[in-house]
Design brief:
5-stranded antiparallel beta sheet, Immunoglobulin-like, 4-stranded antiparallel beta sheet, 213 residues, alpha+beta, single chain
Length: 213
């Protein structure tokens, strides 16, 4: 392989990365700049091997194609989010029933409310962390139709206390339909490609909605 003398390379105006450390990744412009510099300063008596040159050119083409795909996916996600948000806005003012809701755990105990539309042989309340992972499932005995609550002490399924913060819970019932909240949809929000709705002061997720009228 041709050896490049660093002393002969032209100076660049590229600023160093923050903190004084150089970036560990190269973009297609950096790759092309290195390839051109390598060709410019190659030894005429020992030129760059043709097979190696073709390999580097193929690597550059692959890098450019991957970056174009990445930009295309980002653009598509933005378009889809905007379209979904427009459609979700059509639900504003409608009455909705949701099986789940966000809540804030204070580090001690949270009371999670739910209602069933008939007598249920049991109700299951799943507690989800901010990543959407179920960390605890609370089960009740038979409950009658109406409003109920269940307390969560902040202990996950492994018996480990979790830190205070924002969490989510979702309810289901055996023999009846369970809901965490119901009311008029007053707002809609999109973040990281996920839609959420505001019912009163309660935030629910798109997949929490079980009835909208």
């Amino acid at each position: 392989m041709t050896t490049i003398n660093p002393a002969r390379l032209p100076a660049t105006n590229t600023p160093p990365a923050s903190g004084g450390a150089s970036s560990a990744s190269l973009g297609k412009d950096d790759f092309l700049r290195l390839l051109i510099t390598q060709l410019r300063y190659q030894d005429p008596l020992n030129p760059l091997d043709q097979n190696e040159f073709m390999m580097q050119t193929a690597q550059f083409s692959s890098l450019e194609a991957l970056q174009n795909i990445d930009h295309g996916l980002a653009s598509l996600q933005t378009t889809m989010t905007g379209s979904a948000l427009t459609q979700a806005a059509m639900l504003l003012g409608k009455t909705a029933i949701a099986s789940g809701a966000d809540f804030t755990f204070d580090g001690h105990e949270s009371t999670l409310a739910f209602a069933v539309d008939g007598d249920a042989s049991g109700v299951f309340v799943q507690v989800l962390d901010p990543t959407g992972t179920v960390i605890q499932t609370l089960a009740t005995g038979p409950v009658s139709a109406g409003a109920h609550t269940v307390a969560w002490n902040g202990i996950d399924s492994a018996g480990t206390p979790v830190p205070g913060g924002n969490y989510h819970y979702r309810v289901s019932a055996q023999g009846a339909r369970a809901a965490a909240t119901a009311g008029t949809i007053d707002g809609v929000h999109a973040e990281d490609g996920q839609l959420s709705y505001l019912i009163g002061e309660t935030t629910v997720r798109q997949d929490d909605l079980i009835d909208v009228r």
